[in-house]
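Appendix B. Worked example

We walk through a single record from start to finish. Start with the input: the chain for Regulatory protein RecX, Caldinitratiruptor microaerophilus, length 185.
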Amino acid sequence: MAWRSEPEEPDAGSAGDRRGEGGEAERCLAAALRHLGRRALTAEELSRRLARRGFSEAAVSAALSHLAARGWLDDREYARQYVAAHRQGWALQGPRRLAAELRRRGVPPDIVAEVVGDLGSAELEAQAEALARSRLARMGGADRRTAWRRLSGLLARRGFEPEVVASVLRRVLAAPDPDASDEPL
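Next comes the structure step. The output line below is what the pipeline stores for this chain.
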């Protein structure tokens, strides 16, 4: 006969122990891996998601430690990749916005300062200028004051420093002051 008449006792830590502390830690780790399989997360984001799913603080801490020890959860690498992805094309962001977004995602302040501080000022100005020129080309016949206002707002919202914005707009609009002329461009 293929079936046993008596059930076996589960070994400690086996699937039969799923309701215990070890089982919760395993389920928490599995949930963490599923989250990381979808997209990269910071330790803080992952911790919040696991806590929302009802895992204990101990299980969440154990899962995060396990993942960090294996290099699968690294806030510094996450921040570097995030900055690289948002330093080009339509997603272009300045250092202020990058820092604010990384802090919002739970990256520790020392890592934010390190990663955002590595951005070169010449590169930032060149990217801000390219963005301003491309937007200016779509503005049509806007006067200098309007163009200055719109472009400075755009660059400020993207997180560029006020000094960078002013410098770029002086070059792009070829006017030292936004009040210098109300002539169309």
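Two observations about the output. The CA atoms of residues 43 and 72 lie 10 Å apart. The radius of gyration is 26 Å.
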